[in-house]
Amino acid sequence: MCLRPAEQRTIDDFCALLTLTEEHAVSITATPDCTSHGRGGCDALIDRGGVVFAVEHTSLDSFHGQRHDDVAFGPVIRPLEEAIRARRPGWDVTIGGTVKLPDGVVIDLPWRR
Predict the structure, then answer these.
(1) CB 8 within 8 Å of CB 32
(2) Partners of 110 in the beta sheet?
């Protein structure tokens, strides 16, 4: 499947929760967004006891421009997060500081993940 790891875990967890609450197997049967190669489609199709449902996610931004900031900070923050997680699995990571982006925007962190 081509889902990002966090998306895969979230949908797997969702299926596991439904399996417990509905008392029958719930599983991913297809990932149309992956197989349609840019033509659209939902993230996953799940089988809920013989009935197929579409699963699509939406992201909520915490502040205006978050996705732009994520792109700008990603190359710096991700390696730090990965290094900390490798040494301290399960830790909640908060990185603090002030950053000035190339467009002149100044952002005070904490950057919490």
Answers:
(1) no
(2) 96
